[in-house]
Write a structure and sequence with these properties.
mainly alpha; elongated
């Protein structure tokens, strides 16, 4: 009987969703507030549109620059911590080995299996360093292109969000009518956000809902969980079943890998 290979699909665009949320939430709020305030002071819609477009241009530049600097700061922080971990592995290997054992114990790995992993990592300093970065500090290697992509995503999302409350002032006959339509649009967006968040499936809610919820209430989605350990490690002398949840420490038969429900060694 042919076996269907097990293929995992994970949502990995969390950083992009965060940037869209940040840009669009501010883009919807600030131009709307400016247009609503000017609607009570002027009677010409083109003045409101001009002021709103100027704010959208300035706001998108400011938000994009902020996203760029934030991503650059994250990359510099990661590089600094990476150098520190490399230095500690060379200067105080025993202390670092004890930290690895403590991390593995927190996952339910027995002392014997933890010692096996530590011994393997001593022969692979790069894997040891990456393990400490991920599991001790919770840091992932940043994408070198992340800063520019973040800036462009936030700026574009800000422009798109800012044009929504300004669109009625471009087509409406009077400022009063435009204000009413703009307010209605903002309420429709909030209603759409709430309906999607409450009726969508779990998968859709985790992906689309984060963006829609962020439009009404800015926030950043959680970081994805860390991956498996680097490199194969032979099993230790721990008790049967010890560390079963820590799949990277034990080899899995090909049948279990293919079907996803075979026996575990």
């Amino acid at each position: 009987m042919p076996q269907t290979p097990h293929i995992e699909r994970h949502f990995t665009a969390g950083e992009t969703v965060r940037d869209v949320v940040i840009g669009m939430s501010d883009g919807l709020t600030v131009p709307f507030a400016l247009a609503a305030g000017l609607s009570g002071a002027v009677a010409a819609a083109h003045i409101v549109v001009t002021a709103g477009l100027a704010e959208v241009a300035a706001g998108s530049i400011a938000m994009g620059l902020g996203g760029y600097l934030a991503a650059r700061s994250d990359a510099e922080h990661y590089a600094s911590e990476l150098a520190r971990e490399e230095r500690e592995i060379v200067e105080m290997p025993e202390a670092e080995a004890a930290e690895v054992s403590a991390i593995l114990h927190s996952y339910g790995v027995s002392t014997g299996d933890a010692n096996t992993v530590v011994g393997s990592m001593r022969r692979q300093p790069a894997a040891w360093r990456d393990f400490m970065m991920r599991f001790e500090l919770g840091l992932e290697a940043p994408d070198p292109k992340r800063a520019l992509r973040s800036a462009l995503t936030i700026a574009t999302a800000y422009v798109v969000g800012g044009l929504i409350p300004l669109a009625p002032y471009i087509v409406a006959a009077t400022v009063r009518e435009a204000l009413g339509v703009s307010v209605a649009l903002m309420w429709l967006i909030r209603f759409w956000k709430m309906s999607v968040a409450t009726s969508a499936s779990a998968t859709t809610r985790s992906r689309l809902g984060r963006t829609l919820r962020g439009i009404g209430a800015p926030g950043a989605p959680g970081n994805p969980s860390g991956g498996a350990l680097i490199g194969p490690v032979s099993g230790g002398g721990g008790a049967p079943g010890a560390g079963r949840s820590f799949h990277a420490l034990s080899s899995v038969p090909s049948t279990a890998t293919a079907t996803g429900n075979g026996p575990r060694s």
